[in-house]
Specification:
The protein is α+β, with helices and mostly antiparallel strands and about 160 residues long. It has three helices and eight strands. Strand 3 and strand 4 form a beta hairpin.
C-alpha cells in the first residue's frame, strides 16, 4: 500500500503538430518576402540578406522552443505532475492533489495568482484550464484532454 501513490492513473502527452509546422513555414516565407522587398527598396541585396539571416536565427530558436516542446501530464493518486521537455531540458511541476483549491476555465483575463508554475499553450484558441493550489497563491495553466480533466475533477471533488 505504501507504493500505491506511484500508480499512474492517467498519462497524457501533447506536442505541436501539422498546423504549427505550416504556420512556421508560412511565417518563414513571409519573412523571406519582406527581406527581399527591403533589399529592392534600399537597393542593397547584401544588407537585406544580413537582416534576413539575423531575423531567421531568432525565428528558428522560437520555432525550436515551441514546435519541439513535448508536454506531459501525469495524474497519480497523490499528485498532478506537469512536464515540459525542450531538447535535453526538462521543466517539472508537481502539484499535490490535497493542495488543489479549484479548477477554473478563465479565458480572457490572466489568473490572479502570485506564481504561475507552468504554462502550456500549444493550440491558440483552445480552452485553457487553471488549476489553483496552495490557497490560490499558485496556479498551473494547461490544456488537458477530456479524460484527464474528468479524472482530475473527480480526484479533487470539484
Amino acid at each position: 500500500m505504501a507504493a500505491e501513490w506511484k500508480i499512474i492513473m492517467y498519462k497524457q502527452e501533447k506536442k505541436a503538430g501539422a498546423p504549427q509546422y505550416c504556420a512556421s513555414l508560412a511565417a518563414a516565407l513571409i519573412l523571406w518576402i519582406l527581406c527581399d522587398a527591403l533589399g529592392v527598396m534600399i537597393k542593397n541585396r547584401f544588407a537585406s540578406d544580413v537582416v534576413f539571416i539575423l531575423i531567421a536565427c531568432v525565428f528558428v530558436y522560437f520555432v525550436y522552443a515551441h514546435y519541439c516542446a513535448v508536454f506531459g501530464f501525469e495524474l497519480t493518486k497523490k499528485k498532478l505532475i506537469a512536464v515540459r521537455k525542450i531538447g535535453h531540458r526538462e521543466y517539472r511541476e508537481e502539484v499535490p492533489i490535497s493542495k488543489i483549491d479549484c479548477i477554473d476555465t478563465v479565458r480572457k483575463k490572466e489568473p490572479h495568482c502570485s506564481y504561475i508554475g507552468f504554462y502550456v499553450n500549444i493550440l491558440p484558441g483552445k480552452k485553457r484550464y487553471y488549476v489553483y493550489y496552495e490557497n490560490k497563491s499558485k496556479c498551473l495553466i494547461f490544456e488537458p484532454d477530456e479524460q484527464l480533466l474528468k479524472l482530475l475533477k473527480e480526484s479533487t471533488n470539484g
